[in-house]
Please model this.
Amino acid sequence: MSTFSRTMRAVAIKALQCGSIPQHIGLIMDGNRRYGRKVHVGNGKGYYLGYETLEEILAVCMEMGVKVVTVYAFSIENFKRPADQVDTLMELAKTKLAELCEHSELVRQYGIGIRVLGDTSLLPEDVRNVIRKAVDLTKKNNRAILNMCFPYTSREELTMATRSLVSGIEAHDLNPRQVSLTVDISTSVLEQSLYTRSCPPMDILIRTSGEIRLSDFMLWQSSRECHIEFVDCFWPEFTFWKLLPILLRYQLRAIPIAQSRREYGRGEVAEDDVEGDENVLLSTNIGKARQTSLEQEQDLVVMMSQRNSSESTLVTSEADGTAGKKSPCGLTLEKKQRVSSFLHHRGYLPNCPIVHLQ
Amino acid sequence: MPSPSPALTLRRRGGSPSRDTSSTDELTLKQQQQQQKEQLKTSRTAADLIADHPAIKPVTIPASQGTPSSSSSSSTQEGHPTGESSRTTTRTPTATTSSPSIASRIIHILLKPFYFLLFALLHLGHELVISTRTMKTLVQVFFLPHLFPIAPELVRIVRKDVGTDLVKKPTHLAVITQKSGITLTGEVDETEEDEWHARVAQLAQWSSAVGIKTLSIMRSTPLYPEDLEALQDRVNHTMKDFYKEEKRVPIALVRTLRPVEESLSLVFQQNNSQATIQRDLRLHGGRTFDLDIVILSPEDGHDRLAGNVRHLGKAALRQQISSEQITTSFLDTQLSADLTEPELLIILKDDLDLSNYPPWHIRLTEIYHHPDQAVIPVYTMFLQALHRYAKCEQRFGK
Model:
């Protein structure tokens, strides 16, 4: 890339930073093979070209200040492809992951932690070893995250999360019933059991190659307040200049998106004023050290009160009966500890270590 | 280079501390007169101030040039000026590398308005592109009134417009509507709610004409049960009107999703007898229906999946299932019992997002969204989406 276009890009990025920058971008890198065929270099070379594009887009995103980039590298459905193509992809993933975690200037400069999302038990042994090494080496990086979905489908992710939560219930780590006003298995707990547990909500989802499907990618994450874009070009043709209008459109929507996310939180807190007050009291007692955990807890309270609205009859009957004595906030704390210990032990995902992003 | 910077620091420090000490002296004098208790304190603080004061330190700093860490740690109270000056004095050889950072910072600050201007220009340009596209669509729509009538009232017209060249048609069409029926103040807006009902009735007409079996409509607020009945009446009425030229009027059923726990029991039933679940779905109250209209609300998205986990957990505690039994196909039969996967999703909103449509079901759904919602009639979008779907090619991962 010439110096001129590099400078232009840097200037454009600086200009974009005057507006809001997305926290989490998802990319469906579709059209590598078709591009390879189009420029007559074959399927395999298409993948390599696609990887180069990924590196470039990743660098741009990091320069802008995007915290998480999630890419769809390989779907579980892709195992249906001819064996030589699958082998090429495995080989590519192996070399590039090793390269990324050991000698990548980009990873070092921006402190990127690499995560591999998906059912890695389907992969050959050597690829799994490389993945484990890459994740382990970059485990401590907490400034940005690169999520490689490999081999991933969203349904597998949701099934995995459901299964692990149910196994937690079977082992009596978690309680499926509603005790007083708290409930262990809330929407946010399910969200925390997914592979993207330590990532902020997804802001933009981009699919290249002109297809208008999600193809089993990030169904949960993209389902609410996520700007989706279908771009009509093959992935290796995707450049910063094609990303630019998408970012501009996102910036126009950023304020309504943030507002509706806030309302989603606030609307349900307002339903239950008592608990809100108790939370404030709690935060003053415990002090600033637990501020972050409290925020999460408030999040859980939100989910709970929302359940109240749907199953109000259940709440009143149970609240009168069993656990009327204990204060709800104490129960919330207890439950919060239960959930977090579950997430760190039984529900732990080795390829997606929990990290608090800076 | 080394000599001017210590001199500078000395001069800078020589200026301010003397003033400071005199002011503290005045302070202590005043307080001595006022109270004896505080006298001790203030004298101590004054002494501390003098001891801590950098006015004494400049003598030691040039001596401890070799150890910049100690000087910086001792002068932490003074903050940045000391730290910076000591750094410049100690790292004179690397001064060439540290000065560009300041220069670049200044340049960056100077460039800030420029960047902001560029930011505004980018958005302006983008806005222009969008308006041009909207104008183009407007012109297109204006010149296509005969192909796409704005308000098709009869099934014959819709069938003609759709044509017979569609290679494939969706059996389940999903629509995301923007009209919430609730204003910002939280009150139910009657006219908007009425518009929404009219839109649903219209979509039901068109879908049945095309031969769609299931129509799921996403709304941004839950629908009240009494409104559901009103909607059913309205749909029945419009269907009669729509098919007045034909002998048989198709029957449409409006419903919302059943509670999650029922879908779980359906799966257990299915284990016993396979066919009952299918018959249950097709038969409702003893009569068959041609179009199944499902009204969805945001609670049917993430929260429904979480609720499902809770009910599975309860079933697991009752020993009805074990966690090993939960596979993708198990969840699929369970979640698809009430709502099938839509093949085509039309978004009738300005912005493209999925508005909490049940995430499990939109895996392979074709998502159609026209960016110029304001100028294009819904009917045109409906037809375009069908044509877009007909020519799409799904490879299912291959």
User: Anything to note?
Assistant: Chain B touches chain A through 56 residues (CB under 8 Å). The radius of gyration of chain B is 37 Å.
